[in-house]
Hints:
heterodimer; A: 5-stranded mixed sheet; 10 strands; B: mainly alpha; Hypothetical protein af1432; 2 domains
Amino acid sequence: MPGLQTWVGMSEIHVQKGPTLFTCAGLASCIGLVAYDPLAKVGGMAHIMLPESFPEKPTAKPGQFANTAIPALLDEMERLGASPTKLIAAYAGGAQVFRFGAGKEALGVGARNAAAVAEWVRKYGLKVVAEDVGGNLGRTLTMCTTSGDVKVRTVDGVERVLCNVLQEPWQPTP
Amino acid sequence: MATNTMTIEDIVRKTTDLPTMPAAAIRVIREADSSTSTAGTMAQSLAQDQSLSARVLRLANSAYYGLSRRITNLQEAVIVLGMRSIRNLAMVASTYPWMTRPLKGYGLGPRQLWTHSFGVAIGAQLVAQKARLDDADAAFTAGLLHDLGKVALSVWLEDKVAQLIGIAIAEGVTFDEAERRVLGFDHTEVGEYLAESWNLPSVLTQAIRYHHQPNLAEPPSKLVDAVHVGDYLTMTMGFGLGADGLQYEFFEEALERLKLSAEDLDTVTDSFVLAYEGYESMFMELQVA
């Protein structure tokens, strides 16, 4: 376990070259997205709150929205020497908070966040090796860049390894 | 503990660490709602509690308000910030000491109930502003106090929380319904009991009582609806989620009564983070106050 922990608050994006433990705590409907370039040893994490930015309003924090967070994360990682085509990514969150009446599922921002992240990672050709979305439990997502483990811990205390970004066989994006 | 044979009165009587509300803070709430109050009478009410007054002045001088000079007396604070803001500051100063305690019965660590309650205060206020309610600031106070009952009930739930979650999951009921099945009442009813014992205005008591069941409020109350929606937004964003987190029901009728759409909720969510971050400078003052 590296000594340095990088906490990623709501709407934030953090990138780091070298060892750290990226942590997104208290994810409910938000999505935590991690990416790692094993060759450049550059990692990054975004804590995404909403599916899409508001067209009529400037975006103060690109990490806030799925459509702006993903390109911003890639840009910041590239600045530290990562190659966007070599990134291994995973994401978790998007829980459905509260129950809704029939036909009111559009209110469920968790599901909309998960769908938006899936869409934008595909658009940017990000290689996603694991995801853990939905359900109704809050999550904490971590990525240890020393061991490569990406872990999800739910509020009921259960922790599991979602994937290992160092053990994923890297293949060039077709 | 044989909680299922206990009444709300028993719970309140036997709990050693009950939340408290200074009499001066209650007077401040009433002053803010009164058409005859002045900056002078408001300051007088506050001045009856020196410790509360000192904390309110400290908050008024926090970086959050960015005042160009230091406010040194209460009357000036009321004039500069307004009665409703002073009421909210008095509420923040009064609740912070007991709301930051951990609540093991709800799986909440130190400060987590505070984080959640403060989030609901901001969320309910933003919802009330979006819905153009007359006194959006009252939604702040109602949101801050909405989970008051949890503070009294927590210790009695410590050995029952796994059972309650089990019932909620196995039977597909909400956490407040599981509380009612096991205890005969839920945290909103305990909160209502405490609020009445403090003599809080009935609109606030109603918001505490019906924040999980806004359709039961009689007559319907937009303040209750704003707190319900604020609670939903705050939990959705993961602020202070405890063991009961995400096991509640959202009543879209609350949105309909407030005349808000799903898109409006997204814009409130967007404003929420900035508003919350803005208040963080105030938290610093609370920690030393």
